Amino acid sequence: MPNKGDTGKSYHLKCTGDALRTAEAHSEQSDLTLFGGCFCPFVQRVWVALEYFGIDYHVHEVDPYKKPSELLEVSPKGLVPALKFNGLEKPRSLNESVVILEYLEEYVSQSSRRKKGSLLPPISDPYARALVRLQADHVNRNLVPAFYRYLQAQDTEKQIEGGKEFVSAIEGLVKLFERAAAETDTDVGLWKEDGKLSLADAMAGPWLFRATNVLPHYRGFMMPEGAKFRAYIDRLVNYPAFRRTCSTEGLYLESYERYAYNRPNTSQVANAINSGRGLP
C-alpha cells in the first residue's frame, strides 16, 4: 500500500476548491434543494447535471452518515443525493441518483427550460439514445462496484484482483464508447473530441475522477494507457460543469481513508460490498 497506514482521518462535511465556490454561488434558497455530501460520487452525478442544464438550485450539505431528520424526510434510506421541491402545496422530493438524472433530463426536455442541450441524443435517434443508456448501465453494474471492491480490498492478492476488475470495467466502457462512435453520428458523449456531456459521462465521471487521486494514493493505481483514453479523461475532468463540482484532492484522500482501510460500518455502500450484496 503506497501510503503510511490508517491515520484515523474522518470524512469532510464541507466541499473545497471549485466545488466550494459553486456551493456558495447556490447558497440562496430556491425552488429546488440538492441534499448532498461533499465527497459522495453519487451526489456529484446529480450536481454535474444541474450545472450542465443551468437549473436554479440550492445546495444543502448534510452529514449522510448521521442521517438528520430533514434528510430522512426526502430520502427514506437516509442516502444522498436527494432533491426537495420547495414552495409547493404538497411536499415533493426525489432520491436515487439515476432516478434524479432521468427526471432532470425529462424536466429540461421541455423547450421553455432547455438551456444547454441534453445528456442523451435527440429523441429522433432512439438507437443512439439506447447506446448511451447501455453505457450508463455498464457504469452502474460494473464500474462502480469494481471501484469499491478494489478500494476496500485489504490483502495484496485481493487488491491485485480488484485492480484488474476495475481496469476491465473501464475497458468495457471504452468498447461501448467506440461502438457508439462507429454506429451512430451523435455528438453526445465526451469520447468524441468535440462531443457534449452525456448521461454516461455524468454517471461514470465521479469514479473515474477518483481513480486519478484516491486510487493512486491508496492502491498505487495507474490509469490504462492510450492517448485516446487519456484525452477522454482530460476532457471529462476539465469539462466546466464537471470541474465546478470538484473539491481539492485532500478532501477526497481524507474522506476515502475509511474505505481504503475498510473500517467497520464505513457506509451502506461499503457494507454491501463486504457482504456481496448489490449496492443500496
Automatic annotation (TrEMBL):
Transmembrane segments: none
Pfam family, one: GST_N_2
Top-level taxon in the UniProt lineage: Eukaryota
InterPro entries in UniProt: Glutathione-S-Trfase_C-like, Glutathione-S-Trfase_C_sf, Glutathione_S-Trfase, Glutathione_S-Trfase_N, GST_Omega/HSP26, Thioredoxin-like_sf
One CC-aspect GO term: cytoplasm
GST C-terminal domain: residues covered: 125-268
Family annotation (CDD domains): GST_C_family (cd00299), GST_N_family (cd00570)
Domain named GST N-terminal: residues: 30-112
Entry-linked PANTHER family: GLUTATHIONE S-TRANSFERASE OMEGA, PTHR43968
Protein name, entry field: GST N-terminal domain-containing protein
UniProt source species: Phanerochaete carnosa (strain HHB-10118-sp) (White-rot fungus)
